Amino acid sequence: MILGSALLIILYLILKYILAWISYYNNLDPRLGDSTWRFTYDYPVVGERDISDLDDKDFVRLRRKKNKVILLMYSIVLIMFVSSMSLLSKFLIFFTS
User: Fold this and answer.
1) DSSP labels for 6-36?
2) pTM for this prediction
3) How high is the pLDDT of residue 29?
4) I need a surface site. Which of 14, 70, 91, 95 has the fewest CB within 10 A?
5) Buried b or exposed e, range 30-43, using 16+ CB within 10 angstroms
């Protein structure tokens, strides 16, 4: 139970670090939007659609970096959920036996 609690604390600190990166990317370009939980291709882009690096190279690369960080955030949240369910089941087994 101690290792599970330590794992959840470490994952929480990693999640806070990732959220700081997402807010940093949000502040770099106003076209990325302010949401933490949405991928950036969900937002409408003013002008022509930038599908490749040829349209707006800096924005497209920044958008791809932010999408990778958001995907990492979702994976950390999923791991935290599974770990918390495991820790909860260990607590229940400990207190019921």
Assistant:
1) HHHHHHHHHHHHHHHHHHHHHHH-GGG-S-S
2) 0.80
3) 86
4) 95
5) ebbeeeeeeebeee
